[in-house]
Write a structure and sequence with these properties.
This protein is of the alpha+beta class. It has two domains: about 110 residues, no CATH class; about 70 residues. The protein is globular, with a radius of gyration of 17 Å.
């Protein structure tokens, strides 16, 4: 679905509901596509049991999905890891960016996924300290995006307008924002976990 509609999906939370169902709270960036078309495609997906969505005329969709038969999703939901975003690959695979309090949690997730017959390749693991530090460029872009209302709902500026304003390609800006958001979230959750001890 993400490849067909060129949509980016950020998964905020997933939890098992029982009976083989999983509930996911997601944000879907429709990009230049029609958000309603994406929601309609989700409703037709045989793995989606139910969907409740806030569908703006343009921009990001926020939706609660009930999905079935996703061993990888169930394994992730039962782990100590948090999925920050997922990206579909042309070969049918997925790239996950996850956050975890401990390296052992990532290792346990990989072992569980492999135990469920899912092929997994760990591309990189970074420490919380390194992941929590924004580069100068990321801080500049995130700060401008925040001031111009990119993170508001509805957005006061979209990705295309922000890319034009910064003089960068949309794909470059999207990656800077995604990486910056992941670092901010990582730093935030890492701080919460330290305080909870």
């Amino acid at each position: 679905m993400t490849m067909e509609h060129e949509a980016a999906v950020n998964i905020f939370e997933q939890k098992p509901l029982g009976n083989g169902l999983l509930q996911s709270l997601v944000e879907i960036d429709a990009g230049e596509g029609d958000p309603q078309t994406i929601v309609d495609a989700l409703k037709e997906n045989r793995d989606v049991v139910d969907i409740e969505a806030i569908v703006p005329p343009k921009g990001k969709i926020v939706a609660a999905l009930q999905v079935k038969d996703c061993k990888a999703c169930h394994t992730l939901a039962e782990s100590e890891c948090f999925l920050t975003d997922a990206k579909a690959l042309e070969d049918g695979g997925l790239v996950w960016h996850i956050l975890a309090q401990r390296r052992a949690a990532v290792e346990a997730l990989v072992k569980s996924l492999q135990g469920n017959g899912i092929d997994v390749e760990v591309v990189s693991i970074r420490s919380a300290k390194a992941a929590g530090m924004l580069t100068g460029r990321q801080e500049e872009v995130m700060s401008l995006a925040y001031r111009l209302g990119y993170f508001e709902f509805p957005k006061r500026i979209n990705l295309t307008e922000l890319a034009d304003r910064l003089g960068v390609a949309k794909s470059t800006l999207s990656e800077i924002l995604r990486t910056g958001e992941a670092k901010v979230l990582h730093s935030y959750f890492h701080g919460l976990m330290r305080r909870a001890r």
